[in-house]
Design a protein that fits this description.
Length: 126
């Protein structure tokens, strides 16, 4: 079995178990309590207000085009990328080792016909 097919099989098994949905829900439930998210939200809101203050409002303004220009403007800001990285550092990374990695380890062991509990004991003693 190739490495690619092994990874695909494991990922599909994890998806079927709902692991990624669970992980996403846990992260989303926790994100708005983190300072990095709150800071990013404040900065983006301010930048949106600044951008929209430069737009001359007309009754027939193309809102889709305006939305697209605003999206492009925000995506070009370095603060957005840096802010997202800080949110990931505060929300996602800690959860990877708490909840995601142990479940992935278990599925990989099952897939390779390795006793998970015995493998886990070997990991903690080595």
């Amino acid at each position: 079995m190739s490495t690619d097919s092994f990874v695909i099989e494991v990922v599909n098994k994890l998806k079927k178990q709902g692991l990624f949905d669970q992980f996403r829900k846990e992260c989303l439930a926790d994100v708005d309590t983190k300072p990095a998210y709150q800071n990013l939200q404040t900065r983006v809101t301010g930048e949106v207000s600044r951008y929209l203050s430069t737009v001359k409002w007309k009754q027939d303004i193309n809102k889709n085009q305006l939305r697209e220009h605003l999206r492009r403007h925000l995506n070009e800001l370095p603060m957005l990328t840096a802010g997202i990285e800080r949110v990931v550092d505060q929300v996602v990374k800690p959860k990877i080792f708490q909840s995601l990695k142990p479940q992935i380890d278990k599925v990989v062991c099952e897939h390779l016909n390795i006793n998970y509990d015995a493998w886990l004991k070997g990991q903690s003693s080595g």
